[in-house]
Design brief:
Four copies of one chain form a homotetramer. The first copy, chain A, is an alpha/beta fold and 357 residues long. The first copy, chain A, folds into two domains: 2-147 and 285-331, Rossmann fold; 151-284 and 340-350, Phosphofructokinase domain (Rossmann fold, 3-Layer(aba) Sandwich). Helices cover 41% and strands 18% of the residues of chain A. Chain A is built from 14 helices and twelve strands. In chain A, strands 1, 2, 3, 4, 5, 6, 11 and 12 form an eight-stranded mixed β-sheet that branches. In chain A, strands 8-9-7-10 form a four-stranded parallel β-sheet, with helices on both faces. The radius of gyration of chain A is 22 Å and the shape is elongated. The mean pLDDT of chain A is 96. Chains in contact: A-B, A-D, B-C, C-D. The A-D interface holds A 22, 25-26, 28-29, 63-64, 143, 149, 152-153, 156, 160, 188-189, 191-194, 289-291, 293-294, 297-298, 300-302, 304-305, 320-323, 343-344, 346-348, 350-352 and D 22, 25-26, 28-29, 63-64, 143, 149, 152-153, 156, 160, 188-189, 191-194, 289-291, 293-294, 297-298, 300-302, 304-305, 320-323, 343-344, 346-348, 350-352. Chains A, B, C, D: Residues 3-306 form the Phosphofructokinase domain. Chains A, B, C, D: Its cofactor is Mg(2+). Chains A, B, C, D: It comes from Acetatifactor muris.
């Protein structure tokens, strides 16, 4: 008999359900007796012992369903060790609930923040297996995360839509793509949709270079320019500020995000009409794309296998087209970002895409 | 021999190309000799005689292509009779170019503003045929406009995406749908995606009623609420202001649109997390949906037939499932809005949707 | 208190769930107490008293879900009055189960066959409300049926896909679209996807005219031709046969459908490479399109209203953009087919589409 | 100055245009003067010197366009060394045309057959660069081919559509997926869409095992079963036949493909209703998915770089997430198939999917 606790934490994304279904199908298809405890709304469910017993039926038909049947929430790692508003020690509470329910392990699906807490619980002696969930694809130790390709598809659709209207109106269009710290999503969606300029956090941009590209396109008669901008894109000037100074600057901005700031700057310098579109949370939603369904199912199956083998303390990852188990301590607290020298960046430049650098 | 001038004006939308292809195919398939003059970027092309001669090849493969191969721009009717910055009389210029090119007629694709100018040109003695283009579906004299159903599809997708993330995070989500004056797009996309609350310009809302609905859903355990809000949604209080006062109020708002204002109000009154998503210009872009491709092609064919019959001064419309010709003067300056007593509104209410009224 | 029996019958299609949700939401939102008996797998469930009690939860989240949560099956009308293999009188059995459960009415969702039986039950004294379900759009008494637009979307996608491969390989491609008796689906999908030839049951074709069109395209340098063929397309020659003779001929055909027969004939006469693609049952599946979701929800709401008003013996239909109630006896046994003189056919011809006539 | 010949050969697929655009953009963005000779309809264009001079404009807007702007055709390798029907030595003709046009190199996009001929031309002394195009993903030397992921998306959609109708009607449904020799496409689409049984050429199946799975599902109350079958799926019995014997058997089959044969066998043994759907050529068509657009663009950029570096005799491939150059002789004549022991197969089995083995 295995008692499995399961939870999804952090921003939701596509294929969370597919991944959980993969774990559970693998366990049910084994000879083990299995009980699944689904903790509700992320770590909160574990902290306050809010859970549901789940059966096979709960996992039927969810392969293609977006979101998470368990609900999710953000419980920032920097607050995890502080007591809650009632003085409860949250880490202790999670441990107690784990032992009270006599769990054999926790399956935790989440991104960077989630993995810090997962690693902490593992160090505290709980049996933990994690699965790499994030549309940002910025988890260390895995080439790919589920949710990413689905988000690329949606962001690409968004820029495709904008493309026809930008061309018809001869406008500069900025599409803001999710990604505060890394540019994987913006880079891939931008390349897929034929964006002319791609601005990502890893490669600070120079406004003049951005404008050069717009004008070069004008001179060639293209008449419009598409700019894919990551939420965390930053100018070379701002990149020289301290984190604190930059945060202050952001707070003072009259615009809700850097895209609007950039739009205003381009408009001012070129006199051109610039528009901003922000698909926003749409990028996390909807049915997972086929790639993510297969990928998340495979990760889930491997997690199930680890549980059957009593192997804990790992994230299931994907490296060089092989499923791998990565120690949680190697994952926690690291970020997988795009190197400005990466082959994909060079290829994008060969294709004529400007990074404003 | 027929010399046809053609132009697309106002905000672009899906199926403009399909409609033009319909006109041109019909003319080419007739026994007439035909020359097509494509004026660039809306009325500007006609004013400043910027055009391209188009041949069959230009219209091949564009049935499914978004945007407009002619480009478009907004030339507000209220400025059309004023001279331009160089003192040029724009109406006179259009007439002169029309006669200089010895055109037999103008085919003009556009929405409400476009039709006012088209009607003026018709009254000035030019032969004009128009086609009803707008994602807003607010043109008088036709049950349907092309672009509308494609925009419904995109806005519905947007709310579908938001649905899974709203449910997973137990949030109130506002999706702002295009439509400053009418709510057709918001109402249809909202009903198609299962929105719980739909706010449209035609039915001013009461914030308390909106909050009642959110709380009713909470009490039933739904935990999240989707609100589809038209750009021009307005509260009962604001609806009592004069146009001028309301405009002033909007300008002073700290938020870029009424959706953010509404979000702030709900958040303040309920303490709940409220998020806003604005698909924006995406709603005008991309390949037209099959409905619009068929519909725009049919309108184009009927326009071609009118030209072959030398029947001018009409918009081609669609009433009670019949193609009709509507005198331009009947179309210009009128708005087709949703009656609060319309059967579709009543049905939406039967389904449990709140309009906040 | 109202006791409502509900069933879906005939081939499944998109928006069956949306329609049922519409009925049930309307009833639950009224002041009536309501019990919903969902009969399983079409009339069989009513005949053999296989049903499930359904609650609000069963109808939550199904607006966008394809298929039918009740299951369906075909129970041909011509067999409905014969006893089953155990000698059971099926009509009597349905009546007895209706009375035993003390039902106030039956809500029946189905197409042409389904309506014959529904009308019979109504004449036998049961309270019946029906909703017009079919991808064929061939129900008398309504301008539109739900499922139709979703099927158009899928069939159009299919032809769009084929378009690029046909053009690249310079082939004649036949896409067989569903529709044994009527051509609505083929005509709309064909027009939406730019098919060059459209063959439908209502307009028998002449093989030579089909080949003329292919060769005309060759001479113009197009190099490929797309033919959208309804399952029930028929040549002028075959249209002269008696039903019986034609059926015999079909049975002797070496090919699984008329499309393959046509392909072989074109290949033989022109020496060209001809390929056939049959999307088949795909056309009934998947999530309903936004149009169908709104339309089916509206029909459902109107059905709910009829029940609350104790108005029975009607199909809820849609005429000239108004929701209408159509007496069941007016619907049963009639077919809404395309007139060869219909405006849409003429427009298609203006666009250069050949019907082979 | 570089003179580049370019051709696409074999079955068309998505992202051919994206890949060519990648090559050409890279060359145009370099300091080299470039002339592009586009040979029409595959090797035939090179053999018979049918070509078009292409400019930047020809490659604008084709990133998202399906098919190939050059046209394609199959010129089987086993016939390439035979003279044509007029006695022309085809290999000699290609060489002569290459030299006559003073080409610096040939860029050839194709799959397995194409690579055999490309390798031959390379051995004959021509400068050749190839790009791995096939929806089958069966090219040796690269982890991925473009077209594959787009085809997975379409085949998955197809099975998704069938899913709702299969469930509603409680049927066994067979969806035949492209792939005569390898099962990559079937396996991925099957896993993505939750197929219950997946039959691929690499793992011969046992009919009884297939039926066991169907009956196991029945007993669990699922009531329907989805089988994804590759075109080249083969039973264990047939796998023992010689190639010649099996070919003979296939020719004698009353059904057009193994799927129909399998359907008949299941129907006979179980008495259940079994339906077959064949999306067929749809799988090669339409706009490439975002993954393929990025991937093909990157491959194209790398090919451009090789040309600028005068590096010939290679296919550009992708191994372990790195772009690599693979000697043509290593690619030609080999097949990348699925090992029955592959991790993805094992994971699929953990998820409960039967391969009938």
């Amino acid at each position: 008999m295995k008692r499995i606790g399961m939870l999804t934490s952090g921003g939701d994304c596509q294929a969370l359900n597919a991944a959980m279904r993969g774990v559970v199908k693998t366990l049910y298809n084994s000879k083990e007796q299995v009980e699944i405890y689904g903790f509700l709304n992320g770590y909160k469910g574990l902290i306050y012992s809010k859970f549901q017993m789940l059966t096979g039926k709960d996992f039927s038909g969810i392969l293609t369903k977006g979101g998470t049947i368990l609900g999710t929430s953000r419980t920032p790692f920097k607050t995890i060790q502080d007591p809650d508003e009632n003085g409860l020690n949250k880490v202790e509470a999670m441990k107690q609930n784990y032992y009270k329910l006599q769990l054999d392990c926790l399956v935790i699906l989440g991104g960077n923040g989630t993995h810090k807490t997962a690693n902490l619980l593992s160090k505290e002696g709980l049996n933990v297996i994690t699965l790499p969930k994030t549309i940002d694809n910025d988890l260390w130790g895995t080439d790919m995360t589920f949710g990413f390709q689905s988000a690329v598809d949606i962001a690409t659709d968004a820029i495709d839509y904008i493309h026809t209207t930008a061309a018809s109106h001869r406008r500069v269009f900025i599409v803001e793509v999710m990604g505060h710290k890394v540019g994987w999503l913006t880079l891939n969606a931008g390349m897929a949709s034929g964006a002319d300029i791609i601005l990502i956090p890893e490669i600070p941009y120079d406004l003049d270079k951005v404008i050069d590209k717009i004008e070069e396109r004008d001179q060639r008669g293209s008449g419009f320019t598409i700019i894919a901008v990551a939420e965390g894109a930053i100018s070379k000037k701002d990149a020289k500020l301290s984190k604190k100074e930059y945060k202050k600057k952001l707070e003072k901005m009259p615009h809700p995000s850097v895209s609007y700031e950039l739009a205003a700057a381009i408009q001012e310098k070129t006199g051109r009409e610039v528009r901003v579109t922000v698909p926003g949370h749409m990028q996390r939603g909807g049915s997972p794309c086929p790639y993510d369904r297969v990928f998340a199912s495979r990760l889930g199956a491997e997690a199930g296998k680890l549980i059957l083998d009593n192997q804990y303390g790992f994230m299931v990852g994907y490296k060089n087209r092989e499923m791998v188990r990565v120690p949680l301590e190697d994952v926690a607290g690291k970020l997988k970002s795009i190197s400005p020298d990466a082959s994909i960046v060079k290829e994008a430049k060969l294709l004529g895409i400007s990074f404003g650098d």
